[in-house]
C-alpha cells in the first residue's frame, strides 16, 4: 500500500459534493465499480480528506454539418465521458520529495 506523507501543519479541507445529473452519476458509479473490481481503490468508512469528482466529455471525431446558408460547419462529437478527481488541495498539503533526478547523459 502506498502512503501519502503530509506536512505537519496541514489540515484537511472540507470539499462539498457537487451535484451530477443522473447520466453523469451513472458514469461515476461505473468507473468506481471498475476501479474497485481491479483493486486500484478500496472502500473506507470515513476520511477527513475528500476530493471532488468532475465528469468531462471525451472528445470524439469531427463531423461536418451544413447550416441554413449551406455553409459547412465542423462539429466535435462526444462519444463518452471520463471521471476526473481534483487533487489540488491534497497536492498542496503533501510533503515534497527532495530527491534529485539523475542527468540523462
TrEMBL record:
This is Reverse transcriptase domain-containing protein. It comes from the Eukaryota. SUPFAM superfamilies: DNA/RNA polymerases (SSF56672). PANTHER family: REVERSE TRANSCRIPTASE DOMAIN-CONTAINING PROTEIN, TRANSPOSON TY3-I GAG-POL POLYPROTEIN. It comes from Arabidopsis thaliana (Mouse-ear cress). InterPro entries: DNA/RNA_pol_sf (IPR043502), RNA-dir_DNA_polymerase (IPR053134).
Amino acid at each position: 500500500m502506498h502512503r501519502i506523507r503530509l506536512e505537519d501543519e496541514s489540515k484537511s479541507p472540507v470539499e462539498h459534493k457537487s451535484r451530477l445529473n443522473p447520466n453523469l452519476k451513472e458514469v461515476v458509479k461505473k468507473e468506481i465499480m471498475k476501479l474497485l473490481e481491479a483493486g486500484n481503490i478500496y472502500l473506507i468508512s470515513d476520511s477527513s480528506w475528500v476530493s471532488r469528482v468532475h465528469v468531462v466529455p471525451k472528445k470524439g471525431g469531427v463531423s461536418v454539418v451544413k447550416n441554413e446558408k449551406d455553409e459547412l460547419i465542423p462539429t466535435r462529437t462526444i462519444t463518452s465521458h471520463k471521471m476526473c478527481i481534483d487533487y489540488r488541495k491534497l497536492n498542496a498539503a503533501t510533503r515534497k520529495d527532495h530527491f534529485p533526478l539523475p542527468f540523462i547523459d
